[in-house]
Amino acid sequence: MKLPAGPKLSSLLQTLRIIADPTGFLEACAAQYGDTFTLRVLGINSPPVVFFSDPDAIQAIFTTLADQFEFGKVTHVFRPLTGDLSLIMQDGARHQKQRQLLMPALHGESLYRCGNLICRITQTQTANWSTDALVPVQDAMLDISLEVILQVVFGLQPGERLLRLKSLLHTLLERVNSPLYSVQFFLPPLQQDLGKNSPWGGFLRLRQQIDQLLYAEIAERRHLITREPTQTERTDILSMLLTARDAAGEPLSDQELRDQLMTLLLLGHETTASGLTWALYWLHQNPETLTKLRAELDELSHQPEPMQVAQQPYLNAVCKEALRVYPIALISQPRKVKQTVSLAGYEFEPGAILIPCIYLAHRRSPTYPEATRFHPERFLTSKLSQYEYLPFGGGSRSCIGAALAMFEMKLILATLLNRFEFRLQQPSGQMARPARRGITFVPPGRFQLRVTQLRSTAPVAVG
Q1: Which domains does the chain have, with CATH numbers?
Q2: Higher-confidence residue: 109 or 161?
Q3: I need a labelling partner for 364 at 20 to 30 A (CA). Which of 2, 29, 126, 419 fits?
């Protein structure tokens, strides 16, 4: 089969380049080969991996060709973390069924009910920030994001279990994002339990401790709901999932609940924290943009409702632009061809891997003039399609937590800007290449802000 052009490097060298410098390698390929190119990054004799950034091709992948792909086998790298019953591991009817069960807990009225809690968490986590304090931004955003997941998603109440689970999850996430541990997920031969002091053995024992706490919480909450039906009024996502029923009236099993919670943790913790870090980075690199956003937030009535804050147009534009310049994921979920498909002037045989490339789609000059510039105004003046702007993927495999992630970003950012004024610890100027952290990319170095002033107003009602 004739494939789109791509680098002539060996599979090993291509793999090393995309691991070491994925953004640079993708940009170089796009500059040389255009919107569509082929890489060999899955090992010797592996299927071709074809990247697309043209919106017409991405639209076809998400819509008209969607039934021609399979997904679960492509996402196997996440299986040790999320489990076999995770939404991202499913295909076809099972995926659709799970998505329909999960969707109500992550959209609409459910978001509104958790807004005040997100703001309270942000205020609590930053209560000790004082004038002249130096804030390591990425670490601070990770702490806030993890606390949101524990309370808003898992619904954990203050106590020993929350503290224990928070400590274990923090350890797990740090290990997953370190090069020594993360490489194991891509290389199954390294997944050998050689005792508690071995990398994989340590991971398995840590996962077991986390599972014990999660299953204990699930059992306790399920019993409580059975004994006291009024407990269904709780607004955390686990509580809503415990009461969800499919078309046959069947609830999610304990393992399904555990796997979905771990999926939301994996996809919603590091990613949201990185998006917030970028937003704060760009705002303080661009004082005019920061002044404009502060003015919008200051015009709100005293203690407006969270939904009112989240609907502010410039706040929305700032968050969207932060996720455009450096999206929280470089690619949408890979698709494995089940039967021959025609796309972009090529025919792809079964086994080929097709990847809509979010990073490159967000940098196409026909879509985004001055694509490397942080310019939120572009989202006030242009209407972009879901195939041109896709920070959470698209089609039936788009991130199910996208609405929650955007809502969380807006409320946390608004709360921070209304409580504090900062200045860059480092001088502003041309930014170096972003740094990899696990599956996300963050500002280079130890990006820090110094608190210069405490503001007295609160951006949202937190009662």
Answers
A1: 11-155+234-454 (1.10.630.10)
A2: 161
A3: 2
